[in-house]
Design goal:
Strand content: 5-15%
Order of helices and strands: HHHEHHEEHH
Number of helices: 7
Number of strands: 3
Shape: elongated
Radius of gyration: 19 Å
Structural class: mainly alpha
Amino acid sequence: MTRSAQATSVGNPRDQALDRLARAAYSLSAADSRLRGRATRTAGALSLTHARAMRALADQGPLSVTQLATATETTNAATTQLVNGLVKAGYVTRERSADDKRTAVVTLTPTGTQRHRDRQAALTRALHTALGHHDTATLDTAADVLQHLAAIYDQL
């Protein structure tokens, strides 16, 4: 950033706020990376991608790998690796479809269902604790901002 751009940013409250938002987004991304690292080193730890997959399965029931990839916003190859880890942890099963032997169907196990419920309860408690002082309109605005950030990241 040039000195003149920095000077403009310093003097412009909106640019300052956008800069704080960008820095917060980087911080969120770094926290996600740390969580993924813990998930690869710690038995029972779930990355956000693991949690998204388990939530999709809890909400929608058994899904093909392709459907799960769509639900988790990842590729089929990444989803296959994700499912491998969830199978190893005992959270899901993967079986060939009775209708199409080329298609694998992923289903939460009872252990996976309970792990998902526990994770959701912990997330809900953490959100209430950390964000309980915000009203519904503020939380809706935050959700909107995060959705826009996701779209921006997809364009970069």
